[in-house]
Amino acid sequence: MRLIRSLLFAPANRHDLLKKLPRYPADAVAIDLEDGTPENEKAAARDGLQDIVAHLRQQHLRAILFVRTNGPGSHHVKADIAVALRASVDGIIVPKLETTIDLQMFEGSTPIIGIVETARGVANVEMLVNEERGRLTGLAFGAEDFITDIGGRRTLEGLEVIYARSRVILAARLAGLQALDQVFTAVRDDDAFRRDAEVGRQLGYGGKMCITPRQVEIANEVFSPSAEEVDRSRRLIQAYEAAQSEGRGTIEFEGNMVDEPLLKRARAVLQLVRD
Length: 275
What we know:
Blueprint: E1 6-11, H1 15-18, E2 28-32, H2 42-47, H3 49-58, E3 64-68, H4 77-86, E4 91-94, E5 112-116, H5 119-123, H6 125-131, E6 136-141, H7 143-150, H8 162-175, E7 178-181, H9 190-203, E8 207-210, H10 213-222, H11 227-245, E9 251-253, E10 256-258, H12 260-274
Parallel strand pairs: 1-2, 1-8, 2-3, 3-4, 4-5, 5-6, 6-7, 7-8
Antiparallel strand pairs: 9-10
């Protein structure tokens, strides 16, 4: 599965919004049967899922298409899984992932992104990726449910979730999984969203979950290498390879000492461009 810089959610009961998804530049979209769909409309949303997926395919949706089911403890989840598989979506997003048992009902080879958003999920995240590496293709961190679960107080700065946010990205990277950063709920504050996305990128996340279309382009920009980064990476690699041919293992490049870790970082930037 290709890299995801932006994952846009839309409620499964809002076909008017779902039909607009092909016009947005999101790398991935998710039809949301969980929080975005009211309890009394979940069954009807499931009934209409195959038709809306077929419509999106006919409209040549380019984004990776996911369905977010209800959580593993919900009485809706088995029906959610069944209809998602019948609709032949590209992947399933599992919210409130806490233990390996939570994934047992998700059979087959359909790619799964698990959202870690509870205290237990964060505490178990290393075990989850170690035991379910073959089934999980990605992890996401959900700050809002997490802070509610631990009884904390949410702030714009986000220091209250920095430990959990960091622990999820560390586990994802160790397992070689894609990692998607937290939702940002101040939907009209583009500058604050950008700052939050930039922190996510600095921590190591490769993309961000989005809840409005206006967040998508910002996420795509933040999680893509800038032209300056690409140019500098190319020049750094060329300088390093020239030094190696002369028998030198480290070089000074634009005032910084460069060795193997910085070289890997530069190569990773160019790989993102090729992908």
